[in-house]
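R.M. (postdoc): so does anyone remember the format we settled on? I'll just put the structure tokens first.
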């Protein structure tokens, strides 16, 4: 019997990267997974690959910055699978490492809409279902920038601190109702997100990179983050709630 047998999990941003690794791990442990992403081509390819592998997967095209999309994502999940047990808020974007004096409004608004608003919208929509069934688990993707001050751009750092705060707030408010909410705070993970620095603010990048040389001994593989997301979604972590867990190989411990 899998560790997530009969559970229905929505994973936003799961057509690629960490979200895809989490969906893969969840499906391998018996969960029915909802692949929710705004990249339609990657979304369809991921769903097809899961189905070909005998997994129960359902795709929803969603922009987490759009309220109607998030509502539809949850409603279609319940219509398709009959329930929702787990929400992983993984969809997220970077801010080109813009330092405070170089922040562009368009970047600020986009990152806040997706990285903060998307997480809020997802949680706001699933919580009534979770309250009714008196159970449910939320796993948010924060970042080491949601715990530390100088390791990302200004907007991304603000957004991920908001994710950390929302995680603790929801964990605290809804824990007594049988609902858990935790976050993972990775350092650098080897995904498409971190493979190009085109158009970056070189001042911001330079400042944020000061602590990388010598003390970040390696980047993580997406599967290493997915292992944590599996633990946090399963009953094995039943007494962990409202926590933002650093996953950085000891980088922030230095
Ligand atoms: N990669 C890292 O080094 C790293 C480190 C710390 C935290 N994180 C966080 O982990 C999460 C996943 O990152 P990743 O590295 O897998 O990124 P990625 O770029 O590989 O994948 C992100 C996925 O999210 C989707 N997405 C982006 N905006 C969306 C939106 N508005 N609506 C729906 N889907 C959207 C993309 O299409 C993509 O499939 C993000 O929240 C990111 O901030 C990543």
């Amino acid at each position: 019997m899998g560790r997530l047998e009969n559970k229905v999990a929505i994973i936003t941003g799961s057509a690629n990267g960490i979200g895809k690794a989490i969906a893969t791990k969840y499906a391998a442990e018996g969960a029915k997974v909802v692949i929710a992403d705004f990249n339609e081509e990657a979304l369809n390819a991921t769903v097809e690959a899961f189905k070909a592998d005998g997994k129960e997967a359902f795709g929803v095209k969603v922009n987490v910055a759009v309220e109607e999309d998030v509502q539809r994502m949850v409603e279609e999940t319940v219509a398709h699978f009959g329930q929702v047990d787990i929400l992983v808020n993984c969809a997220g974007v970077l801010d080109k490492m813009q330092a405070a004096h170089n922040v562009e409004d368009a970047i600020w608004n986009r990152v806040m809409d997706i990285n903060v608003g998307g997480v809020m919208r997802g949680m706001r929509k699933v919580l009534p279902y979770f309250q009714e069934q008196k159970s449910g688990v939320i796993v948010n993707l924060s970042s080491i920038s949601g715990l530390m001050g100088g390791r990302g751009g200004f907007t991304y750092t603000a957004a991920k601190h908001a994710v950390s705060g929302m995680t603790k707030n929801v964990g605290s408010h809804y824990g007594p109702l049988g609902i858990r909410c935790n976050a993972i705070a990775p350092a650098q993970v080897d995904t498409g997100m971190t493979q190009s620095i085109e158009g970056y603010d070189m001042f911001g990048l330079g400042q944020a990179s000061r602590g990388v040389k010598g003390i970040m001994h390696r980047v993580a593989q997406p599967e290493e983050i997915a292992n944590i997301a599996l633990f946090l979604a399963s009953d094995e972590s039943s007494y962990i709630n409202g926590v933002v867990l650093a996953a950085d190989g000891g980088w922030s411990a230095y």
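R.M.: ...and that's the designed sequence above, right after the tokens. Also worth knowing: The pocket of nicotinamide-adenine-dinucleotide is lined by residues 12-13, 15-19, 37-39, 42, 62-65, 90-93, 114, 118, 141, 143, 186, 188-189, 191-194 (CB under 6 Å). The CA atoms of residues 42 and 146 lie 28 Å apart.
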